[in-house]
Amino acid sequence: MDIAIFGMGLPSVYIASRLSAEGMSVGLFGKIPDMVSEPVGENTVDEFSLSDFVINKIKYVANFNKDFELDERGVAGSIVSTKRMYWHYLNKAMDYGCEVLEGSTFDAENTVTWNGRTTKINPELTLIEEAEGKPVVTVLAGRVPINFDTVEFYDDPDMWVVPSGKLALIGGKMDFSWHKFERMALLRKYTLSYLRPTGDLVGDTIKIGRAAGHTTKEGFVVEASLHHARLLVDTVISEEDLRIYGKSARPSRKANSLKIWLEA
User: Fold this and answer.
1) CA distance 177 to 78
2) Are residues 65 and 140 in the same domain?
3) What is the pTM of this model?
């Protein structure tokens, strides 16, 4: 196996699809996460050919502070179905021969456990996705009194409202300002949770998107994830140094395994 990718978030399946398409032998390990629709900028829709996954267009980003003071700015973007994107990239990876062990677990020694069987793998390159590990309570709501072309963020409670067609996704701390949404009907309530690697894996991780707390200037998470994942793929293919989050990274051989390491 050329490359082992631990973690099955959206950046991981994108990376797996790209590297598999380059003819590399790729293994993808972890668990398929829950997903919600998310906003991306219009340039990202064009760059990553995401038009088939667009739910509706957005024109504004509204930021409310704890006193409900509004800072609104225009933005050209779209709400995209991350679930459809996810399966598009995952199916593409499998079409190119990527080995997918969904539901598998792993440890710091590159030992993978799947369906009760444990296997030691020795890839040339190990890529590890670190996630926050904290659950996010989310509800799917109807009849929300918001503009359907506006993504709303609330600074103090870390809550956000993403319009999806005639519905909305509300995430974050649900105990904040329900009066603003008093006319809404809760259609579904669920918890998003993310896998967190254990042991020494965290020290060899390039953090992407939500895990690292990095977003675009508009506050868009999945957009930042895709751009950094593409940067990582291009680095692996070209074997050049990587500039990410203000640090440089390059392949480094140690213990017969090629891992990405970060330099302050």
Assistant:
1) 26
2) yes
3) 0.78
